[in-house]
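Hi team,

Below is the intake form for Alpha/beta fold hydrolase from Nocardioides immobilis. Please confirm the fields before the structure is written into the shared record.

FORM ID: S-0412
PROTEIN: Alpha/beta fold hydrolase
ORGANISM: Nocardioides immobilis
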Amino acid sequence: MPNDGDAAAGVEFVTIHGKRRAFVRTGSGPALLLLHGLACDRTTWDAVIPILAKKYTVIAPDLLGHGLSDKPRADYTLGGYANGMRDLMTVLGIDKVTVVGHSFGGGVAMQFAYQFPERTQRVMLVASGGLGPEVTPLIKLIQAPGWEGAMRVLTLPGIRHLETTALRALASYGRGPLRKYTRDLDEAAAIVDSWRDRRTRFAIRHLVRAVIDWQGQIITSSDRAYLTETMPMAVVWGREDQVIPVRHSSNAAALAPEATVTVLTDSGHFPHRDHPEEFARLLHDFVSSTEPAVYNRARFRRLLRQGSAAAPTPLMSVGTA
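The structure came back. Fields below:
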């Protein structure tokens, strides 16, 4: 959940290009880079980090404009975020990583693999953006002309407290037909709470305008998917996702012919939080069963010259856990 208060235990900071970036670094072994989604922060991974850290070096940053990282007037495009992650890994002395991206972070993960294939070993997409146009209308509203003014009022102390209390109460609603609509409302409450900071609202608004319009998501990696033909890729989704439709998971065929897709039942937009043990197992199985991608400049040049001539290959497997 977003946390823009005092620095939490274990959070490190590094200043790159004059901008302070917050991150958590823990564990030892092959490197995993965990990228959170829109308006969230590194704490979305809190349930899985201790499990993964037993076998991996886990890096979980607050993306620029989120959490404890700076929120400047800056580049909030996918390319800008990919560059930032490249620079962070360089400063930390990590040459190659398996990138795990949730929601908007999935778009950053795909962009990172496209821009820096020589530094990307694998990609896991979790309820990822960039696989289709549809997205919840609530995110589209962030670019509406009156959104900033409305948020200034709705995040006033008394009003904000009532809103977040109500959202958290609804999130505790038990099983039943409404559960798929309420399970992620505690995350929504944390996001609303973080929007009391004008700088956070500014950053999120600019980010949304870079990737979404009134018709939905405007950024896709499908036209460049052929460049990652040797990149191991896995996709994890929650069957009851109300933010990005689970049917987008099948579009992974356009990104990687041998991608494996797992849809978790009784899960929404945050499958890593709903089922942390299962998610950690899926990630470990993915890493341990695939060889890291090896960048070949000559092959990359050949692919660019040829372009994408073939239709997408069907998925290797689609599983339900």
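SUMMARY LINE: The chain is about 35% helix and 15% strand.

Thanks, M.
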